[in-house]
Amino acid sequence: MLEPRPTHPSIAQLREVTQPPSVRTRAGAEHWVAHAYLRDISPYLTRVLLGAGFSANGVTWLMIASAALAAISTGWASLFGAVLAAVLIQLQMLLDCCDGEVARWRQTSSPKGVYLDRVGHYVAECGIAVALGVRTAGGPHLSGVWISAGLLLGLLVALNKVENDLVHVSRHYAGMTQMRDVEEVRVPATGLLRKARRLARFVPFHRVFHSVELTLLVLVAALLDLVTGGVATKVLLVGLLVSACVTVVGHLAAVLASPRLR
């Protein structure tokens, strides 16, 4: 039987147990904001959540709620809406750090927790993409070019995420072991795709579909809209649609050419 840990741990204890090297060095699961500053902050909030009696899944539900509110705020066609969305996504990412830390401290990691975590990220990224169409249209409408563009962007963002998740599903059905979260397994075997991947490091347009980058771009466009009369947000949506089409096709080719399915 696992020995229960104290309800009110020190920050040092939390860091030792909940932020091992296997977590801090993950290639795909850790966003740059986690590396840059959120993992420095998260133990303080994790300690509060532990003291309040939150389970890991309870924290994940808070993360999902923050993601949904960020998407709703994105659709609010104002500068304040863009600022609020960016702030809520930072909170979502902080809670995303905390739910895993609570799970590791309470020793309650589970498939349900992984599933809910995935749901949260889909809600954030796909929701913001769809809400950008609403924002560009000036508010919620039943139809319209910009509403359709936002829906298409949401679909492409979902497809891009599914391409990642289907790697794990395919490996499971094939009876393979879990894929290591390291950079080597993501590198395509063929020369042309390897060169394209290196180029993408210098022009990482494929990264803009993460919720953090999306909300920051929406915020920049909202600031530019103050002098362009809404043109910047329209340009952003069109640019994201083009980038999403390229990313979905390129991502599929990269997965098939990498060691991930071998």
Distinctive features:
262 residues, mainly alpha, Four Helix Bundle (Hemerythrin (Met), subunit A), globular
Would you mind describing this structure in some detail?
The chain is mainly alpha-helical and 262 residues long. The protein has one domain (11-261): Four Helix Bundle (Hemerythrin (Met), subunit A), CATH 1.20.120. The chain contains 10 helices and no strands. Helix 6 packs parallel to helix 9 (211-228) and helix 7 (145-173) runs parallel beside helix 10.
Number of β-strand runs: 0
Distance between the termini: 37 Å
Task: Report the helical percentage.
Answer: over 70%
Given the C-alpha coordinates, what overall shape results? globular
Oligomer: single chain
CATH domain class name: Mainly Alpha
Beta-strand proportion: under 5%
The number of distinct structural domains comes to: 1
For this structure, the CATH topology is: Four Helix Bundle (Hemerythrin (Met), subunit A)
Q: Which residue ranges are poorly predicted, with pLDDT under 50 across at least 5 consecutive positions?
A: none
The CATH architecture: Up-down Bundle
Tally of alpha and pi helices: 10
Mean pLDDT: 88
Structural class: mainly alpha
**The named CATH superfamily:** CDP-alcohol phosphotransferase transmembrane (TM) domain
Q: What does the largest sheet look like?
A: none
What order do the helices and strands follow?
Answer: HHHHHHHHHH
Backbone CA Rg: 20 Å
